[in-house]
Amino acid sequence: MTLQEYISFWQETYDKHQSRPTTYAAHNYVFKNHILPGLGDIPLSELTSEMIGDFLEERRRFGNHRPGSSGLGEETMRHIHRLLQQCLDQAMRDGLISDNPARAFHYSKPKKVNADVLTPLEMEDYLDAAERLGYLPMFMLALTTGLRQGELIALKWSDLDIENWTLTIAENRAVVRRELVEYGSQTRTIALTPEVIDLLIREHDKHPSSPLMFMHPATLKPYSPQMVRRMHDEIIKEAGLDHIRFTDLRHTCAVLSLRNGLETKELARML
To answer: CA gyration radius for the chain?
Structure first.
């Protein structure tokens, strides 16, 4: 059995049933673009730590198998190594190999997390730019609640409780290939401001017959995470805030919530 054959088995038998759809898709990307081109044809029982070391060094220096690729960063290398190690750990449990050659290597976690928090003036500039571009409801919601991209694009109107000013987040709902997929029932409920409620009502008036809270106007389907990032990039260019990432909206929400007196446990539950 080659490593490629075992990886196919591992994905179908374990990964598909234990991971969120978006995580499964991310794993598939790493396998297809990094691990399989370098190691896939090697018999599983013949895989050595030296082979893995050579493979990891090649990816670090030269990137993936595509022509013109540059070297990979530490975060990507950690993802590649962790996924390969996870897969080979299961091969050990399945009795196919006696030890895991990927465990000879270690990629430490970054010791510092870089996060930019918007100042009040930057928040105004960001939201003004979002309004000029027609993106205000989605990004006002992101900034005031700290929702992730995947949570934003998977929202439905039925999640909104206008009377109680709350929004229920389905934590096990995701957009997969531009379709909503439900794979669990875990939820959390967060409070909204009247201003955000008003914006969402106006957004609903644009497409009242759709169950989706945020719908792509051309395809009538959910947005993809890539689309949200492009919209965010348009906003920061319009606002002149080129150092702000989408994840910094979540950081800003957390900092402002704490400054406004929200308890740490309540903030953790909200996020």
So the answer is: 22
Q: Alpha carbon 84 to chain centroid distance?
A: 20
Task: Give Cα separations from 114 to 62, 104, 110, 240 (angstroms).
Answer: 26, 29, 10, 20
Tens digit of pLDDT for each residue in 172-209?
888 888 888 887 778 889 889 899 999 999 999 988 99
Q: Among 181, 67, 199, 96, which Cα is nearest to 143's?
A: 199
- Looking up tokens 């500039």, which residue turns up? 125
8 A C-beta contact, residue 154 and residue 222: yes
Beta bridge partners of 174: 181
Edge-to-edge strands, sheet with 166-170: 160-161, 166-170, 187-191
Q: Which of 139, 143, 130 is nearest to 249 (CA)?
A: 143
Q: Give the chain's mean pLDDT.
A: 85
67 has pLDDT over 70: no
Grade residue 268 by pLDDT with cuts at 50, 70 and 90.
low
Are the C-beta atoms of 130 and 113 separated by less than 8 Å? no
CA dihedral sign, ordered 184, 190, 196, 201: positive
CB 88 within 8 A of CB 100: yes
Structure-block tokens of residue 207:
């497409």
DSSP for 70-127 reads: -PPPHHHHHHHHHHHHHHHHHHHHTTS-SS-GGGG---PPPS--------HHHHHHHH
Amino acid identity for residue 123 in this structure: M
User: What whole-number distance in Å separates Cα of residue 25 and Cα of residue 19?
Assistant: 9
